[in-house]
Structure formats: C-alpha cells, structure tokens
Amino acid sequence: MMTPLALGVLAGAVLSGTSLLYATLGETLVERSGIVNLGLEGVLLMGASVGFTVTAVTGNPWIGLAAAALTGGLANALFGWLVVLRKANQLASGLAMMFFGFGLSALVGAPHVGAVIVGLPKWRPAWLAALPWVSASTLFNYDLLTWLALPVALLVWWVLFKTRWGLGVRAVGESPGAAYASGRNPAVLQFQALGFGGVLAGLAGAHLSLSLTLTWAEYMTAGRGFIAIALVIFSKWNPLRAVAGALLFGGAEALQLQLQARGSLISPFILDMMPYVLTLLVLLAWGGSRRLAAPAGLGRTFFGSE
Amino acid sequence: MSETALRPILRHTLVAGAALALFSAILLVAGKNPLQAAADSFRSMASVYGFSELLVRMTPLILTAVAVALPSRLGLINVGGEGQLYMGAWMATAGALWFPPLPRWAMLPLVAAMGFLGGALWAAIPGILRAAKLVNETIATLLLNYVAPLIVSYSIFGPWKALGSSAYPESPAYPDAALLPTFFETRVHGGLILALVALLAYWLLVDKTRWGLQMRAIGGNAEAAQRLGIPVAVFLVAALALGGGMAGLAGMGEAMGVHGRLRQGLSPGFGFTGFLIAWLAGGRPLGILFMAFLFAIITAAGDTLQITQGLPFSVVNILLAMILFIVLARRPGASR
C-alpha cells in the first residue's frame, strides 16, 4: 500500500519531470552530434515566454505550444549558425544564447505578466480514475505533453540508434572527419539535430508556462536548463536512461515540495542540491572508466570540410 | 596614431555600432524609442555619480574574468565563477560573524582572506577531480555553480537568519570593522583596488614568472610538460584554486562593499559574465579591464531602460548577446 507521501512525490515527479525530460532529450540529440548547447536555459525561457504570450493573445494553448516549438527550433538554428557555420567557440556561444534567452523572454513576456490563460487540457482515463488511491491525487491527470513524454523518449532513442540518420548523427558526434570521409555532410546533420533538439527544448519550456504554473515570470526556469545538461551526462547520452533520470530529478523537486507542505525539518535547499551533487557523484563513480559514453567529438569545432 | 593602433579601435566601434543597431531594431519592434533610451542612458552615466556606479559594477567583473583567464592558461575551462563567488561571500560572512570583535586593520585582511579561501576551496574540488583524471572540470565547475547559492540560501534562511528582517531573508549586518571602505561619498569600495591588484598580479604571474611559462607549457602540451618535470597535477589544482579565489574575492567585495550583509541575489550572473569577458579579451589583462568597463556600461543601461522605458532590466541582456553574437560570428576558431 502506498503512503500518501510517496503518491504525492510520484505525481509531482511526473509533472515536473516532463519538462526536464523534453529538455534532456533535446540536448541529448544535439550533443550526440558533437555540439554542447550551454544556452539551453535560455532556449527553455524563450519557449516558456513565447508559448505563454501567444496563448494569452490567441486564447489557444495549442497555438502557443506550436509557437514555442518553433521558437526553440529557431533559437537552435541561430546557435547552429554560430557554432557550425561560423565555427565559433561552443561554450561562449552557449552562454551568449543564455543571455539572449534571458533578455528576449523578458521582453516578449513583459506585457503579459499576470495574464490569466487557459492551459493545456488535462485528462485521466476513466478506468485509472476508478482506482481508489489515484482519484484523490493528481496522478494520471496529465496533459498531452506528459502523456507523450515516454513515447517521445522511445522515438528519440529509436531514431538515434536504429535509423541511418541517427547513425549519421552519432558518427558526426564521434568524429566529424571520419563521417565526412564516409560521404556524410557534418554541417547538415548537426543542423538537423539542432533543429529537432530545439523543438523539444521549446516544448519543455512551454510545458512550464502552459501546464505546470500557468504563469509567466522572468527566469521561471530556475536552472532547469542546467539540470537538463547535467541529466544528459547522468544518463550517459542515452534517451531511455534520461527517462529514469528525469523522474529521479523531478522526484527530488517533488519530495522537497511535499516535505515543505508537511512542515519537515529538512531544509528545502539541501534537497535542491541533490540533483547536482548526485550527478557529480555519478560522474565520479564512472571517472576514469572507459564506460563514460560521451561522444568523442563533443565540443570540438570541425574545420575539415573546407 | 599609427594605422595599426587605429584598426582595433575602428573594429571595436563597428562591432558596438552593429550590436546597438540590432538592439535598437528590437526595441523599435517592441514599441519603444531607442534614441530616447540611448539619451537617457548617456545622461545617467555622464555625471560623477553615474561614472562611479560604472566602477562599482566593473569591480566584480574584473575578478570573475581573472578567475577564468588564469586557469585557461593551462587549457582549463572554469565556468564555475558564479559558484566560487557565492562561496567567497559565504566564507567571508562566516568570518565577519564568527571572529571576535577586531579592529578594522585586522578584520579586513581576515575577511578578505576568508573570501579568497572560500572561492579557492570551492574551485579546488573540480581541480582535484580533474588532476586525478576523474571528472572533466568544465562539467564539475558548472554543476557546483548551482550548489553554492543553495548553501548561501540555506544559511540565511537558517543559522544566519537576521532577526526581525521580514522583507526577505538575509544575514545580520556585518560589524563595521568588516565593511570595505568606500571612496568620495560614492559606492565605489575597496574591492576595486583589490580587483586592480589582482589583475596586476595575474599579469605578472603569467607574463613575468617562470610559473607563467610552465603554465603555458602545460596548456600547449600537458604530456610533454610532464616529461619535462613540471608537476602538472599540482599546477592544475593550484591554477583553478587561485582562479576560484579571485571569484571568491568578488563575492567578498559584493557582500562587504555593496550589500553589507549576505543575500540571495548577490550576483546577477557575474560569474558567467566574467567568463565572456575573459574570452572576449583573450585573457589579456588590459583587454579584461576594457571589456569589464564595457559590460558595466551595458548593465548600467539596463537600469536606465527599466526606469525610463518601463522595460524589464533583463532586456539589456539582448544587447549583450548581440555584441557576443557579432564577435563570435566574426572570429572563426575554437579558441578555448
């Protein structure tokens, strides 16, 4: 029999894990092609802000969701222009994207702070709602993005590991030179990975403003972009492990809220540290071993094709 | 002036002009008047007080930039200035609150040393992990950025919570002896002198000493340096710790020079901005000074936008990003 605490944590883990998972999947796709986007935090913010603003203006959360996805894709295309075409430093470009996201999201969202929106509809299948301990919680009462989170993770895994395109992306991430020599165009593959990754990041941001909080506030992502980057490493660049990671990290956040509501003596800040400390410990445990599955070409700029 | 001296100035002017034009276009789309914003910003900075505020803003930026530039000589990427800054402020606060009442001449060096130590120890963690070939320092410093502010939050919501401060949590005010002196009735504080000394020390270290030469050897080829008998592991840890100490001093300066207490929002991303300054300056000391001043102007303009145009302060980050985009797009190469 589940205790209500465990139930509350599980329900919360799924809700806050959704945006983490989408962001992590997007970054996994991008990093598999050999590119690190440290500006993920900014992309999430732009997705959240544009999604909220468009929803507030049109009154339709689906249009908002589409706009957020498009924004994410465009943001990553801009990033790709810098690091793929202009061969700029990836870390500096990522930080520049982060600042761009801070500024643009604030500008776009400012007129709509405090607006009341109709968020993404949620539903729960009747047979699940009939279960006694489910009906009293938010468990299984999800919006489309949450229902699709698992299938999308499977899809990203399948695309990366079971399709020719995925093989090409991974080849570019391991060694752009070798991929180029075998007739692939690294720049095209990297741009495609960035585009899809950006769409996923835009959706991740939109889930925060259109489902989780139903508000827009500056910096509302509160470091989730960086948690997602940590999660990519935590899950060894594997989309399926990312599901477990997102649930675990989302669960840490949910546990904190639940304990706070129950007047726990454990400081919420200690719990907030857990995702970061955990990731560092996991890295430490893998340290030195060859099993760390980082794409070999990650972060390097490819000059070979000119 | 010779032509070679003029060219970089022309180039910088062009970059700044193009970035301003792009930013103006975005403001126009948002229905604001960019010329008015520029005039307001200029007016607010042209006064003595306005100029002094620029010096206040550039103080932590110089230090966080050195925190990145120093380890980068060995090829180390320190993106953890933000966390190191918070730990510096945290340790300095511990000193100020726990040391017995001391006269100022004793207290100030002590809290400054504590601030340096806080950042240095925090940066030594990724340094040791890297030297032991366990965890890449880029990832470790990035992750620790998010732990340090939580330690600060934990402290000011818990053991250090000031009694009676209901507005938002903060530590009790520091004793007067622990406050950095301010100059000329402005908010310019002793941290600026510390920052300039640190910049000078950085220049001497990397350009004028044998250590600086050895650091460059490690940055060029660590394996060859090891075979030449340079203790690479020691250098890796020491460089990151020294850099972290600089960021720690920045945190100490903000806490003891500006706020007078330990607070949550001590740094609006000084650590990340410092990374960009160091990168834009290519690690050159004068470049760091120039870029820190430029970034101070940009953030000051952000304040003006907020006050006179009713725009969120954060909007000025777009201008910052535009400058970076242009520089990044113009300069090909993965110079790390």
Give the helix tally of chain B. 13
User: Whole-Å distance between the termini of chain A?
Assistant: 63 Å
CATH fold type of chain B: ABC transporter involved in vitamin B12 uptake, BtuC
Strand content of chain B: under 5%
Name a few traits of the molecule.
heterodimer, A: 306 residues, mainly alpha, two-stranded antiparallel ribbon, B: 336 residues, ABC transporter involved in vitamin B12 uptake, BtuC, 13 helices
Lay out the secondary structure:
The complex is a heterodimer of chains A (306) and B (336).
Chain A: H1 4-32, H2 40-58, H3 61-85, H4 90-109, E1 122-123, H5 126-129, H6 132-135, E2 142-143, H7 144-162, H8 164-174, H9 176-181, H10 186-212, H11 224-234, H12 239-261, H13 268-286
Antiparallel strand pairs in A: 1-2
Chain B: H1 3-29, H2 34-46, H3 48-72, H4 81-98, H5 104-131, H6 137-157, H7 191-208, H8 210-220, H9 222-227, H10 232-259, H11 270-280, H12 285-308, H13 316-330
Helix pairs in contact in B: 1-13, 2-3, 2-12, 3-7, 3-10, 3-11, 3-12, 4-5, 4-6, 4-10, 4-11, 5-6, 5-10, 7-8, 7-10, 11-12, 12-13
Architecture overview:
The complex is a heterodimer of chains A (306) and B (336). Chain A has 306 residues and is an all-alpha fold. Chain A has a domain at 16-115 and 143-225. Chain A has helices at residues 4-32, 40-58, 61-85, 90-109, 126-129, 132-135, 144-162, 164-174, 176-181, 186-212, 224-234, 239-261, 268-286, and strands at residues 122-123, 142-143. Chain B contains 13 helices and no strands. Chain B has a single domain (57-309), classed as ABC transporter involved in vitamin B12 uptake, BtuC. Chain B has helices at residues 3-29, 34-46, 48-72, 81-98, 104-131, 137-157, 191-208, 210-220, 222-227, 232-259, 270-280, 285-308, 316-330. Chain B is mainly α and 336 residues long. At the A-B interface, helix 3, helix 4, helix 11 and helix 13 of A face helix 6, helix 11 and helix 13 of B.
